[in-house]
Write a structure and sequence with these properties.
- By secondary structure, the chain is mainly beta.
- The chain has one domain: Jelly Rolls (Sandwich), CATH 2.60.120.
- It contains no helices and 19 strands.
- The strands form two sheets. The chain has a 17-stranded antiparallel beta sheet that branches. A two-stranded antiparallel ribbon has the order 18-19.
- The two termini are 21 Å apart.
Length: 242
């Protein structure tokens, strides 16, 4: 359901003159891509192996359900909307889960153990996705391109994680392929870190998830927009709202 909300705006100037937006003070329209409140994950397909995942109450950040990855060994079964297996991906690219360049996407995720990772995919299709990665096992915050759901780092910054803690991740995906991933603390507004990248392989798609050494939790995927940032120079903001 679409809704109107207010987004705070801040601009951080990073090394090399890169401008990174943290949006919290301009009006925008928002839509929920998935909040898992239907209690199942039957909209999703599995890629690159098998997964153990389900909509559970334990994984809820808000509402009654969130997405839980257990990272358990494969069982090769599918029962009552529960897909079970190893450490593959879940993805969907139906119209209800679509976001593209010019959108701002937000997720809640609870980090796995100190030896694990959470992958938050966007631009997803059968061909792969981009992802924002909570890399607890490497103490890093990453943007990847996942061709055929493989792994290629586009950008990486160091980050000291707290295991089993809720974070909000905001991805600002500009027209032309610029990406800025902002990491927020448990309050959802305190900015902890930012990683920026640029790639124009895909201009839009669905959402995807992966986790290992969990449980990894995900909840409340929303999109806002539109906005555009110059992805060639990232020297400044071209348009904040149009």
């Amino acid at each position: 359901m679409s809704r109107q909300r207010s987004i705070p705006l801040a601009v951080r100037i990073l090394t090399g003159g890169f401008a990174v937006l943290s949006l919290s003070a301009i009006p925008a329209l928002g839509a929920t891509l998935d909040d898992f409140e239907d209690g199942n994950i039957t909209e999703y397909s599995v890629a690159s192996g098998t997964v153990t995942a389900a909509a559970t109450g334990a994984a809820a950040h808000d509402g009654n359900f969130g997405l839980e990855f257990s990272g358990a060994a494969p069982f090769n079964a599918d029962q009552n909307g529960r897909m079970v297996g190893g450490t593959g991906w879940l993805w969907r690219d139906d119209a209800g889960a679509f976001a593209g360049q010019g959108d701002i996407i937000s997720w809640w995720t609870r980090s796995p153990s100190s030896t694990g990772r959470n992958y938050i995919g966007f631009g997803a299709s059968i061909a792969g996705c981009y992802s924002v990665v909570l890399g607890l096992n490497t103490a890093s915050f990453i943007i990847q391109r996942n061709d055929n759901y493989d792994f290629l780092n586009l950008a990486e910054v160091p980050h000291g994680w707290v295991a089993f803690k809720w974070y909000r991740v905001e991805l600002i995906w500009s027209v032309g392929g610029g990406m800025a991933a902002n990491l927020y603390d448990t309050d959802g507004t305190t900015l902890l870190n930012t990683v920026v990248a640029a790639d124009n392989t895909w201009a839009g798609g669905g959402i995807a998830f992966r986790s290992f050494s969990g449980p990894g939790y995900f909840d409340t995927v929303t999109t806002q927009g539109p906005i555009s940032v110059d992805s060639k120079s990232w020297g400044g903001v071209k348009s904040l709202y149009r």
